[in-house]
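Task: encode each sequence below as structure tokens.

Item 1
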Amino acid sequence: MDLNGKRVAILVAEKFHEEEATAPRDFLQSKKAKVDMVGLTDEIITGKYGRLELTPDKTINELKAEDYDAVIIPGGGAPERIRLNRDALDFIRAFWQTGRPVAAICHGPQVLISANLLQGVKLTCYAGIRDDVILAGAEYLDAPVAIDGQLITSRTPDDLADFNNAIFRAMTTGFLDDEEADMDVLSALELAISREKGAQDFYLQVASTVVKVNIQNKFKYLATVESEHFDQLSDLYVKLSQGKHPRVDPSITEVGKKTVDASISGEEALELAMQSEQKAYDFYRNAALKSSSTQAKEMFEYLASEELEHKRLLSIDSASERAGKGHFQWATYWDVPPGMEHMW
């Protein structure tokens, strides 16, 4: 399996870490990916240790998020410069919304901090910016590689082998069990339809059980969205199967066989829901990667990005529950789903 036809952007600037930029580039090129080294300008830049000069293949203002399958942010002194560039932040925010892999190593997460993308995510990084990512709302992990949804992170050049392999997997199969990864498009659609129905039922049950109003409303919102996903996927199944209708088993859901009763806490419900959204993302991401149907691919990519956004919204309430704070103490306007302002 290779990356023929895939495009990757590596963001670089003056004082980039030479190895953290070139090792992923060389690895991905060996897998037949098209890799663009992207600078803030088209001027020659020099690496952190002065060992390498590099002429960017493209400049940041030339990029379109939809043209790339992954973005990598190496460390060194470059992230301090990239994070000050408005075009770079606009691009990384736009790419983030696609749900496709974003990989950052060492000081790379500094760019994601300035793009305001780390709220509620788990990641690793150079230990010297650990407190910075925590203050930005992330959970820090000390590990060679951390994977949370679309985000892949590593600490130092010593972790490059794990970093590169994680990027490759994210661009080929995603992080899904082999049994589900081998499904054909119609089987994947049918499973997704059942899961959306099961998730909808679970969210409605939680909304009628938990005590806190803000958590009730979050689950009511998610149930409404899952219902919309169910309809969209069902319509696509009918089109691709030439008029057949999917079999629906609402007992199939990412939350497993967990029964919702009066004993379930808000924190437990939120954790189960976040696990569900992560599994849904992995499933849709894999389905998008292997789909030969353009319609199905676009649908799966859209749903993958939606599930990540749901997980992020849930993580805000989860962190609030753990910290014993009210949601309104630190939520921002953008934490409120459009059209649901009256519920917060």
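Item 2
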Amino acid sequence: MDSIYHSIIEALIFSSDEPLPTSEIIKAIKEIDGSETAITPKDVEASVDYLNEKYEDDEKAFIIKRIANGFAFATKQEYAKYVGFLSSVKSKRRLSQAALETLAIIAYKQPITKPEIEVLRGVNSDYMMNTLLEKNLITIKGRAETIGRPLLYVTTDEFLKYFGLHKISDLPKPREVDEIMKDADFIEEKRKIMMNQIEEIVENEVDSEGDNKSES
């Protein structure tokens, strides 16, 4: 493959707001350079590997990751906490501890029914399930072959994008999850998120009180 396509593929991935599938990369190249252009999915994979090796040699802070059956630029793990410190995640994008717990159960046990989720959590999960459905992090995939034929839930491509995963098998193993939960950086990041949420609640209450006083 001509080396110019390394730069073309790099530009296409860089310009995309969503993980860019191999098929879209090939389609864009053939639309411009002609349908007879000799480029295959293996060529795209090889180009991405070449670019990542180049980034590594140049000590760049980013790489191209395979996410949700596509390619996207991502900050290297060792720099993620610095970027995270500067990023102000909007509250609507945040997931509560209960939502994360519900989502984790679905991710590891899918396909799974709501009654099964509630048995594992020990509480009603109607609100959490609706929240995850609205955020398109889970979806319905048929019905179980049990009494009442309850709905089966699975994670979506949006779930993969949200957590920066290429495929569901990239999820950390349960043992790894325990280790992550005990990691000092994770605990500190969790503390910051909780403090930010508390500050938002306090600010909203102050704003609400101010509005009530002005109305009276």
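Check on item 2: Strands lie at 62-67, 70-75, 112-113, 138-143, 151-155. The chain has three domains: 4-78, 91-169, 172-215.
End of task.
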